[in-house]
Amino acid sequence: MILSRMMAGAVALMLMAAQMAQASVTLLRDADIEHALHQLARPVLSAAGLNPSRIRILVIDDGSLNAFIVDTRHIFIHSGLLMKLSSAEQVQAVIAHEAAHIANGHITRRLGNMRTARTAAGLGLVLAAVAGASTGNGKAAAAVALGSQGSAMRLFFSHTRAEESSADLSSVRYLMRAGINPRGALEVQEIFKGQEVLAVTRQDPYARTHPFSRDRLRALQGLVAGQKAPPPEPGAVYWFARAKGKLTGFKRAPSWTLRRAKDSPSQDIALMRQAAAFHRQSSTAKALRAIDGALAIRQGDAYFLELKGQILLESRNFGAAVQVYRAAANRAPREPLILAGLGRALLAAGNPREALKPLEAARGRDFSDARVLRDLAVVYARLGQPGMASVVTAERYALGARMEDAELHAERAMAQLPRGSGPWQRAQDVLDAAKRATRR
Length: 440
Description:
- The protein has 440 residues and is of the alpha+beta class.
- The protein has helices at 2-17, 31-47, 79-84, 88-103, 106-113, 117-131, 150-157, 161-177, 183-191, 205-209, 214-225, 234-251, 254-260, 267-280, 284-297, 302-314, 318-331, 336-348, 352-365, 370-382, 386-399, 403-416, 422-439, and strands at 21-28, 56-60, 67-69, 74-78, 143-148.
């Protein structure tokens, strides 16, 4: 019941905002990348007095340079910025800066000061970026609506110079408290040096929402200058290289990846990058040899196993994919993206009844994964449970802000499910939210 109520809240926000959508974003969902970013973020968030287990670092598929927050539970980083940064300390500095906006209450005050339904709806649509993501072969999610009334939303997300100065000061403190070289913060700001003289249309989004000034850069230089520089932490170096290697392995041309894989700081990362590149070239045998090489170095690594499962699944070797995904799920039984992969492999192998358990477990841990909902609808349909198929289909359409379709399937589900049951209530939640949205 708690889960369905959480769903209803996200759905309501999305549906209110759907008619005002003017742009779209794509979330890149990959368990390995998200795990690596969590490893980088954990000491920073702890130093900021935040609970690392309650804040997710998510990647947006956008080549521009940006990072931002929309609430106190998520930090978004554009793939373009992640690929631009060259060290773990730089990524940790970006996370520290956004964490400072959370810890200093900058976003909370704005949430509390919102007065109009239009502003609330616009924010709801941004929050839908979290709720509308689906795993795209371990690489990308389906596009979801983001943004409304462009000038109003830019105003909402634009930090003041006072907030930026406050976040700079706090972020350096967090980095030092965590034993991380704060020079990474200065290096990140130097990337954006000169942006303030460009026309707004030519500035990176980060420069538009995080006002930059030479005075601010000088102040940051002064903060960093007097600090002792701790040596790089080997674990952070590794996880940065792994996150960036996996991201570029699927975002850059395979030839680009294969030329540069040898420059990786460890052989397992080099082999993982080669596996991604060969897989994208449909060279399945080479891809499997490469990922097996990585697994020989890091035996039982759940995220390397997941990549192997993906290669097998997308090469239509369903039986082998199931076995590999099972091994990955045994190693990481709480990782929803891996559980979703296991369910998808079982479904592809013709075992919908077995697929139900991991897919429901994935949904329970991440109710916002639209691809899991799609797979669940197929499973329930094949198991002769059309009411349940309609419930999850209604939820999937709601997450994509397709109000009319969500309402249609919610009504269909309610007509087939026992009145008052948990699934019936989930359908009622979607129906109520859809009707409120259509009245606006």
